[in-house]
Amino acid sequence: MKQSVVLITGASRGIGEALALTLLGRGDRVVGLSRGVSEQTIAHERFMAVNVDLSSLAEAEMAMHRLFETLTPDAIDDITLINNAAALAPVTPIEACASSDIASHLHVSTAAPALLTSLFLQKTAEWPVPRTVVMMTSGFAGIPAASMSLYCASKAFLNMFVRCVREEQRLSSRPARVIAIDPGMAETDMQAYARSREDESFPVGALLRQAHEAGQVLAPRDAAERIARLLDERGADEQAVLRV
């Protein structure tokens, strides 16, 4: 029996884990690409864990090559890549950022999603099945925030990257669907860490605490269910950046 196959980076926790569980629950086959794995996802027979450190582009590329050696379009109804993994740190003014922290952040949050998208489109170019590429973005892509220059800029990069790749796909005889999804504020480790910061160099922390106290932060499962619904909406006039 054919199945939908979904590749998710950062599937070991937070929204990535919740999304993997949501998709597994509806019968999809899920491949999680991350440094760790959650006990809940690994218990599913349709889940495959691929251990990879996305801060290493060479490792990410090798992981994709090996993964696609195990995939053939014959048993697949459609295939999706969800670039969910992202770095938050360093959360500090840019002059306090070490070169290694800057490089690691940009590798995980911008270079790795671009590389994985490139490899995904290459390897499925001749597959006679619908293909989708998703970037998980954020409202911070359009909001300048002190001590979050790398995070905000990375999300803005993803939004523009999606728009450019959509233009490229319009020139293709077999275009893939390419979108960015903003899940809004969800209760993740990143969200909790950002709320905990109370120093003057990070004024966004107070705003995030207010949103949490007002009940405006979604549970990961609720965010995942909304994302899954957006994945099912394949309208021809869709926007590049969708919001749950």
From TrEMBL:
Q: List, alphabetically, the PROSITE patterns matched.
A: ADH_SHORT
Instruction: Tell me a GO cellular component.
Output: cytoplasm
PANTHER family, per the entry: SEPIAPTERIN REDUCTASE (PTHR44085)
Query: InterPro entries in the record, alphabetically?
Result: Biopterin_syn/organic_redct, KR_dom, NAD(P)-bd_dom_sf, Sc_DH/Rdtase_CS, SDR_fam
The record's similarity note reads:
Belongs to the short-chain dehydrogenases/reductases (SDR) family.
Specify the domain of life of the species encoding this protein: Bacteria
SUPFAM superfamilies from the xrefs?
A: NAD(P)-binding Rossmann-fold domains (SSF51735)
Q: GO MF terms on file?
A: sepiapterin reductase (NADP+) activity
Pfam families reported in the protein's UniProt record? adh_short
Indicate the segments forming the Ketoreductase domain, all copies: 4-188
* Subcellular location field: Cytoplasm
Q: Which terms does the UniProt entry file under GO BP?
A: tetrahydrobiopterin biosynthetic process
The entry's keywords:
Cytoplasm, NADP, Oxidoreductase
**Name of the protein:** Benzil reductase ((S)-benzoin forming)
